[in-house]
Design a protein that fits this description.
GMP Synthetase, Chain A, domain 3; 5 helices; about 15% strand
Length: about 140
Amino acid sequence: MMQHVADEEMLRNAMGDDEMEQMMQPPDIEASREHPLWPKIQAALREVYDPEIPVNIYELGLIYKVDIAAETNKIYVEMTLTSPACPVAGEMPGMVENAIRTVQDVGDVAVDIIWDPPWDPSKMAETAKLQLNMF
C-alpha cells in the first residue's frame, strides 16, 4: 500500500488556494466545465478513493470524461482503473455513481470503465504526484 508523504492541508498551506486548485486538476480530463453542476460533481469525485492508494480517484487521473447534459443534468462518466486486476474493479463504478448522486439536481448517472488509453502516472494531478512522492 502506498503512503502519503504530504497531505492536502500541508500542500494548501504551502501553496495557497488558487495554486492548489490548479495543481489538483489532472491533465487529461474532458469535462463539462461550464455547466453549473461541474464544481459540485468535481468535489463529489474527490471524495472517492482507491482503497489501495491514499489519493482520490479524480486527482489520480482515473476519471477521463464527465459529460453533463445541459437540459436534463444527466451525467455520463468514463473512467479507468490503475490496473485491470484492481480488487475493486466491480465496485468502483457504483462508488462513483453513488458519489455523484449526492449532488442536488443531478439527473440519471451512468459510469463506464474503459481501458483505452491505459492509465499511467502521467495522468495524475500534480498534487497526487506530490502526495505520493512520484514527481
